[in-house]
Write a structure and sequence with these properties.
The chain is an all-alpha fold and 272 residues long. It is 83% helix and 0% strand. It contains eight helices and no strands. The longest helix is centred in the N-terminal third of the chain and has 133 residues. It starts with a helix and ends with a helix.
């Protein structure tokens, strides 16, 4: 009985030992495979590391070059923006100067027109007074004042205007118009009455008096009065009405000596 037991134990021991040997061999082969795999991975890692070491300086140089290029681009962009701002500021200054010069030129032109008109008006008054003094013709008898007295009063009023005594001239001309509106010099008296107010820069009253000139039939002062209506409205800053008056002279008095003056005045106003 004990022999059988010992035999069985021995057999079991042999089996266990054999199994251990077989397992050990299998583990050794698996371990060897793992080691071989790890060695291969280490070789690949070493190769990648070497490649990275080679590429890293190139990447650093490329990055540095890009940063420098960006800095240069930003610097150029900032410089261009600054120059554009400076240019825009200079343009604004030039526009302001041009606007100021245009304003000054228009003011000077307006003053020159006024001086020219005054010279023409004075020349006309002297011419008219000379013609009256040298004339020997007599006018028809007035109901209130004789033709001789009418002409004398007219010359005196015209002389007062030429000497700058506008109040005296106004009294003389207005008295003549009231005393005999049918006199041959009545329309002239009305015109010079309006001229007095115009020269005194009382443009509203001058407009009223110039418009009365048209009520005299056969007057030769209608185109003069029409031109001065345009000047009055222009001096008051009513450019739209001034254009209308100049255009009316062009339309209704194409043969007037003031035709070109009205066209030039229209051209000046169209530039505003």
């Amino acid at each position: 009985m004990s022999k059988h037991i010992l035999k069985d134990v021995f057999c079991a021991f042999v089996l266990i030992f054999s199994s251990l040997l077989i397992g050990q061999n299998s583990s050794s082969r698996a371990l060897s495979q793992i080691n071989n795999s790890l060695a291969g991975q280490n070789i690949r890692i070493d190769s990648l590391d070497a490649q990275m070491r080679l590429l890293l300086p190139e990447l650093q140089n490329a990055l540095s070059a890009n940063l420098k290029a960006k800095e240069q681009t930003d610097s150029v962009a900032i410089l261009l923006i600054n120059r554009i701002n400076i240019f825009q500021n200079k343009m604004r200054l030039i526009e302001d100067k041009i606007s100021y010069v245009d304003s000054v030129n228009f003011e000077i032109l307006a003053q020159l027109v006024m001086v020219e008109n005054k010279i023409v008006t004075l020349a006309n008054s002297f011419t008219e007074m000379y013609d009256l003094k040298s004339s020997k013709s007599s006018s028809k008898i007035s109901s209130r004042i004789s033709p001789v007295e009418y002409k004398k009063t007219y010359i005196d009023a015209l002389s007062a205007y030429q000497n700058g005594d506008y109040n005296k001239a106004i009294n003389g001309f207005s008295g003549l118009v009231l005393s005999d509106p049918n006199n041959d010099l009545a329309d002239n008296s009305q015109y010079w009455l309006a001229e007095c107010y115009y020269t005194m820069k009382n443009y509203k009253r001058a407009i009223m008096e110039f418009e009365k000139v048209f009520s005299f039939s056969g007057t030769d002062k209608d185109d003069d009065a029409q031109l001065k209506l345009g000047h009055c409205h222009r001096s008051m800053g009513n450019f739209k009405k001034s254009r209308e008056e100049y255009q009316r002279l062009i339309d209704y008095f194409p043969g007037s000596e003031f035709y070109e003056k009205a066209r030039e005045s229209l051209k000046q106003l169209s530039a505003k």
